[in-house]
Amino acid sequence: MTTSPAMALMALRDQAPLVQCITNFVAMNFAANVVLAAGAAPAMIHTAEESGDFAAVAAGLSINIGTLSPPWVDGMRAAIAAAKAANKPWVFDPVGHFATPYRAGVARGLLAQAPTVLRANASEVLALDDQASSGRGVDAADEVASAEASARALARRTGGVVAVTGAVDFVTDGSRAVRIAGGHPLMPKVTATGCALSCLVSAYTAAVADPFDATAAALVHFASAGARAGAEAKGPGSFAAAFLDALHLTTPGHMDRVEVTAA
User: Fold this and answer.
1) Can you name the CATH fold of 5-262?
2) Which of 12, 54, 22 is nearest to 203 (CA)?
3) Mapping DSSP to helix (H, G, I), strand (E, B) and coil, where does residue 45 land?
4) Which residues of the chain are modeled with pLDDT < 50?
């Protein structure tokens, strides 16, 4: 890694990039608060009438298919086209893409647009690589380790970075790879945590030139904040508030203490 997670955090805070987050109804508020707490600026703009215009001026873009509808898909496509034309990074979160034929078709079409980063759980990554998975609805039922080979294959196919998130995250660009340990078991108990992470990855890719380093840094930030929030939380409700505080209070020293190992 040429840019350490600590250096990436400082770049994020220094630049406070404006990122466009086309995410789902469930995630909007929490995702916006996560991006703000971490040190960037979110904009939740999704309609086709303006999403392309906004993506051209935003520093980064995050696309999440959690609550699909045809008008939203039109907005996603317009934003992706504009971001690519302006050479801006974009992140794809294929939420539960295996759940229905419509969702699967949309996900395949968006993946063909070569996202800068694909951020997904193990079941989603396995299914995108046409491997058997145990996903149910939008939930993962596969271990991150089981999707590492598929992640490498998808990274080589798309030319981007693939991040498989779970108890121990895995990030690869097809040649380099790292595992990131941390977080807390309460994180999956808070709705939209993963969706918010995709938005934060977009913020880091806007602030750090290397998408691999940027993605790893975003996951390190989450892992550190999750561990510290979990140490004081009594349950999912208090965890959500403590997590936002921990994201805001994360220092370069916190980033340095997260376990990141080459894979």
Assistant:
1) UDP-N-acetylmuramoyl-L-alanine:D-glutamate ligase (3.40.1190)
2) 12
3) coil
4) none
